[in-house]
Write a structure and sequence with these properties.
By secondary structure, this protein is mainly alpha-helical. The chain is built from 10 helices and 3 strands.
Length: 219
């Protein structure tokens, strides 16, 4: 378990408390729970706070923020800076982190599928050549090389101030999941919870249709 200073623990607990209060307010505003139920739940949560790992508590809101950034970027059609993300992992050489991601066969296979579906000019022959070259231990490819060889549009390389490697939100999320397993887990949980919510909505809709049919049935 990662050790934290007293100040870091305090900040993690504070972030957790804020998250609890915000969630409670939303539930109360939507009428999901009564004020009494909210108070009871909050008391139980705070009573067991000493049992929680403050390091994990601090990571979950950050993972959720990453997912929200991804969803917002898709809506706004904005590319995300992989360089900025990689800099959090290696401030001195973020490009090395990105190249390490590109050295994975799964990464290139993912990029190949994404480009095939989104880029009519994508050069699959060059992509296959790169996949074949991956069999050599010394294989390496930079974002610029990938873009130049395959005519890819999912990655963009920019020079100068504010430059670096940028990616479509789909690809940026794959990079985040490769870099941070906790993000992958949170995304899986989010998909599962969204699926359950959709299932519940479908059940409610079906019940309403049946109820309407019964009420409108000729006597």
């Amino acid at each position: 378990m990662l050790r934290m200073t007293e100040m870091e623990k305090a900040e993690a607990y504070w972030a957790y408390a804020i998250s609890v209060e915000r969630t409670a307010k939303r539930l109360l505003d939507k009428g999901v729970l009564s004020p009494e139920a909210i108070v009871s739940i909050q008391e139980r949560l705070y009573a067991t706070i000493h049992e929680k790992d403050p390091y994990e508590m601090g990571r979950i809101p950050k993972c959720q923020a990453i997912i929200q950034t991804y969803l917002r970027s898709i809506h706004q059609r904005q590319y995300i800076s992989l360089t900025d993300i990689a800099r959090e992992e290696n401030s001195e050489s973020p490009s090395y982190v990105i190249q390490s991601w590109l050295r994975s066969r799964n990464t290139l296979e993912f990029l190949k599928i994404w480009e095939s579906k989104n880029d009519p000019d994508f050069d699959e022959c060059e992509c296959e050549a790169l996949l074949e070259a991956m069999k050599t231990p010394s294989f390496t490819v930079t974002p610029k090389q990938w873009i130049a060889k395959t005519k890819a549009i999912g990655l963009v390389s920019r020079q100068g101030k504010g430059g670096g490697t940028f990616a479509h939100p789909d690809i940026a999320m794959d990079f985040q999941m490769w870099l941070k397993p906790e993000v992958r887990l949170e995304l899986v949980k989010w998909v599962r919870e969204s699926g359950e919510m959709n299932r519940q909505h479908a059940i409610v809709y079906q019940l309403r249709v049946r109820a309407d049919a019964i009420m409108n049935k000729p006597q």
